[in-house]
């Protein structure tokens, strides 16, 4: 009987250890799921912040483009954006000229300052 008692004790210990390991694995899986949810929430909020900051920038640029005075802190950025729009306009004009001269030039996407909208 001593052998059966020892076998029973070993089986009980194996069962207890298996239960303990399964609980740890379950806890880690729950932690991983929660970590994933929190990381997704953080990424979503960061994206929302970027959207809001973009809208703020568009607001100030539209004020600048309409001739309103803007804060000196953003004036340099507005001038830089305007310079980029000017380069785009020049390149688009060159594309238009090429198209008029040779109808085989691929159509380009036209980006105008007026394409900026604030939602």
List the helices and strands and how they pair.
Layout: H1 2-65, H2 72-101
Describe the structure.
This protein is mostly helical. The chain is built from 2 helices and no strands. It has helices at 2-65, 72-101. The radius of gyration is 32 Å and the shape is elongated. The model has no long low-confidence stretch (mean pLDDT 85).
Key words describing this protein structure:
elongated, mainly alpha, 119 residues
Give the % helix. over 70%
Work out the helix count.
2
Taken from the alpha-carbon principal axes, the silhouette is elongated
Radius of gyration: 32 Å
* Helix and strand run: HH
Largest sheet properties: none
Number of strands: 0
The structure class reads mainly alpha
% residues in beta strands: under 5%
Average the pLDDT over all residues and give the rounded result.
85
Quick summary:
The chain is built from 2 helices and no strands.
């Amino acid at each position: 009987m001593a052998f059966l008692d020892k076998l029973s004790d070993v089986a009980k210990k194996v069962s207890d250890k298996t239960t303990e390991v399964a609980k740890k694995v379950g806890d880690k899986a729950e932690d991983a799921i929660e970590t994933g949810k929190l990381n997704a929430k953080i990424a979503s909020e960061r994206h929302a912040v970027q959207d809001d900051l973009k809208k703020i920038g568009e607001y100030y640029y539209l004020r600048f483009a309409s001739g309103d005075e803007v804060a000196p802190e953003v004036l340099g950025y507005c001038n830089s954006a305007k310079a980029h729009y000017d380069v785009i306009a020049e390149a688009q004009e060159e594309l238009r000229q090429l198209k008029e001269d040779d109808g085989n030039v691929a159509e380009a996407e036209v980006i105008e300052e007026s394409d900026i909208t604030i939602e």
